[in-house]
């Protein structure tokens, strides 16, 4: 008797994506609500539709899903947007996350979570400060009236924020938590090494695939090239013991940025620029792709990201234990409240203090509100908490708190934005900057 488990699993995932999108369009709600709820209901009450033990193969699923989850967002960032908002994205993705983890870890001195070490606090907040690109895109795509600039900040943050959280978790929090001690100087230099090497490798891979894409000119080949680049960058980064996610993000963004520069140059009348040294080095007169093909590539990458997110949501459904969630309800609510407050304070830089630094653009109170509640958690938080060794005595606490925060952030943040844009925002308000 043949096993049709892979085929049944694929039918389940694609059916859930299709039905969620269809219902979300009719109900005018974000599809991620239905994806998350549908994954749990199917796994709990119709297990025949999920014949593969996803938790048993979780490491394999991670390797398969991570490049797909991050690729769509990375492809959507334009070089002109990076130039305009580079410092703002750096603040959101690096400075704000580092300050947030530090602020959260300071709760150790108030013994908020009994029994946890300072290293455990760092790990717990690194896990729960990582936003989810797919969840954020699913929610924001339903709303009209969000300016392009705000979307760039949110997309840039959801990418860079994750890379920073991963480095803080794997190279600082987790070793500190498991060993009980850490050398601050060694941890700092290690984190900087990981940042530098990951970005360097990503730029090199990005340039290599950018030049490779000049050899062919069809949208399917270009899409596959980006997918290969994403997987190659992630695997190479992990094999070199640096951040595979940061390597992946850097590589995709670099390739896309050089392509954007080629397209801009093709439309430019500045002959001096076209004859420049760097233009010749990039073979700027040979375009890797076109805007039309890039749009197709982005749409396909976004769909692959949704499929990968559903697979992670099915794993989340397996991890959900209602009795444990109720047992740790106070810890979940405390973590959700604290992370929301920390995020609101870190985003206040853009609402109230942005004018003090020209390179960081102010967005006003409405922009601050949107940035605060666009911090949905998701797949990456689930991946990170799974990486904690089973022998760790507080792993059940970490899993329950993380699952609770993921679910609350998606439904509470998403519902808050949905209510605002559906019932409160005036139609004429289109520009936030």
UniProtKB/TrEMBL annotation:
The UniProt keywords, alphabetically, are:
Cell membrane, Ion transport, Membrane, Sodium, Sodium transport, Transmembrane, Transmembrane helix, Transport
- Gene Ontology CC: plasma membrane
* Keyword check for Cytoplasm: no
Annotated TM spans: 48-70, 90-110, 116-140, 161-179, 191-210, 303-320, 326-346, 367-388, 400-423
Keyword Acyltransferase belongs to the record? no
Query: What Gene3D superfamilies does UniProt report for this protein, alphabetically?
Result: 6.10.140.1330
The entry's localization annotation reads: Cell membrane
GO MF term list:
potassium:proton antiporter activity; sodium:proton antiporter activity
Q: How does it sit in the membrane?
A: Multi-pass membrane protein
Alphabetized Pfam families for the sequence: Na_H_Exchanger
- Tell me the ranges covered by the Cation/H+ exchanger transmembrane domain, including all copies: 15-417
Which residue stretches, if any, does this entry annotate as coiled coil?
Answer: none
Q: What GO terms describe the biological role, i.e. biological process, of this protein?
A: regulation of intracellular pH; sodium ion import across plasma membrane
Protein name (record): Peptidase
Q: Which organism is it from?
A: Sulfurovum riftiae
Q: What is the lineage of its organism?
A: Bacteria, Pseudomonadati, Campylobacterota, Epsilonproteobacteria, Campylobacterales
